[in-house]
Specification:
alpha/beta, seven-stranded mixed beta sheet, three-stranded antiparallel beta sheet
Length: 379
């Protein structure tokens, strides 16, 4: 959230309207859980898992502690081992690559498409070798990656596909919900997401019965039966309070995503003649859900790199506009990966990190607020 001394600051995200509107349902569900005395997994989590699986059109939904855990457990369920290589994008939140590293595998980065910001399928095949076991496409900012091309490469080389759907709940690709298009998918319900909990929460989805069984075991210390542990697992259980809150919010997700798309259309129209601002693209046959509304700020005059963007973000923030940068540094150049991956250039990712800026976006953002945001950009 942005703080400001201006009379009407506009944060990057405002959940207050949502909380107020849903408060009677949320408080009733929370009270029900508290009175039940069942706070970890249990019937509330099972009900949410069934409801979200029905919404997505997938056989299995397995609640877990976070989106990061969902990625880790998905890779473990697929049998990824230390030394295996997983291809993914350098332009994402660090958890995408971090989940690979946590289990001892090696992230292998390929560049992104400069318009969608998603992994470039044309760059994937050159990085496939005998150690490659899977691809993790990220449906970044709410827009689906090119899953047909990615799945075709996976079939050709006998690779698994793990969808990172942390930012794209409710989005579609050629009419199908994202998160149903690979072998397994990992979701985050971090509070800022389109479908957000009020704490950490995550989910794994798959149509594969064996993968689902393994994921369920891995989230509870590798056991099917208590005290009969079969695998080295994790303490990654979705708690019932978060499931109860998510159950209230799930029926509204299509409405909220439609409101996000309408807000994105308004931004497009308001920004169309602003010099140096490039509005987000919409890939064909993809329903974007605009977790973020992310523009490019082109360098001006002698300014190169991130100077123009950083100056604009600073001025907007100073005026009470909650613009933010997702992400200023490609993953391969973060300190944790710089020694092993930092020397490789990914031109589109590098340029994108220098230019992107995300504007305030939530379902209830008003046209007046958006006009104020764009007015500040023009200024």
């Amino acid at each position: 959230m942005t703080t400001s001394t201006t009379p009407n600051p506009i944060p990057i995200l405002d959940l207050s309207g949502e909380i107020a509107a849903l408060w009677p349902q949320i408080s009733a569900n929370v009270e029900r859980v508290l009175k039940s005395g069942q706070f970890i997994l249990g019937p509330e989590v099972a009900a949410f898992e069934n409801e979200v699986a029905a919404y997505l059109g997938v056989k299995h939904a397995i609640g877990c502690n976070s989106g990061t855990d969902a990625l880790v457990i998905s890779l473990r369920a697929l049998g990824i081992k230390p030394g295996d290589e997983i291809i993914t994008s350098p332009f994402s939140f660090v958890a995408t690559a971090g989940a690979i590293s946590i289990i001892g595998a090696r992230p292998v980065f390929v560049d992104i498409e400069p318009d969608t910001f998603n992994i470039d399928p044309h760059a994937i095949e050159a990085k496939v070798n005998d150690k490659t076991k899977a691809i993790i496409p990220v449906h970044l900012f709410g827009q689906a990656a090119d899953m047909d091309s990615i799945n075709a490469i996976a079939v050709t080389h006998n690779l698994k596909v793990v969808e990172d759907v942390a930012q794209a709940f409710g989005g579609t690709y050629k009419g199908a919900k994202v998160g149903t298009l690979g072998d397994i998918a990992a979701w985050s319900f971090f509070p800022t997401k389109n479908l957000g909990a009020y704490g950490d929460a995550g989910l794994i989805t798959t149509d594969d019965d064996q993968l689902a069984d393994l994921a369920r075991m891995l989230r509870v210390h590798g056991s099917k039966k208590r005290y009969h542990n079969e695998l080295d697992g994790y303490n990654s259980r979705l708690d019932a309070l978060q499931a109860a809150i998510l159950r209230v919010k799930l029926p509204y997700i299509d409405q909220w995503n439609a409101q996000r798309r309408a807000a994105a259309d308004r931004y497009d129209a308001l920004l169309k003649d602003v010099p140096g601002i490039v509005t987000p693209c919409r890939a064909p046959e993809v329903e974007h859900v605009f977790h973020q509304y992310t523009v490019r700020v082109k360098p001006t005059g002698a300014e190169g790199g991130a100077a123009a963007r950083d100056a604009m973000v600073a001025k907007l923030n100073a005026g009470g506009i909650g613009a933010m940068v997702y992400y200023p540094i490609p993953i391969n150049r973060l300190p944790v990966y710089a020694k092993t991956h930092g020397g490789t250039a990914y031109p589109h990712s590098d340029q994108t990190c220098d230019q992107v800026m995300s504007l305030p976006m939530w379902p209830g953002i008003s046209e007046e607020q958006q006009r104020a945001v764009v007015g500040a950009i023009r200024a």
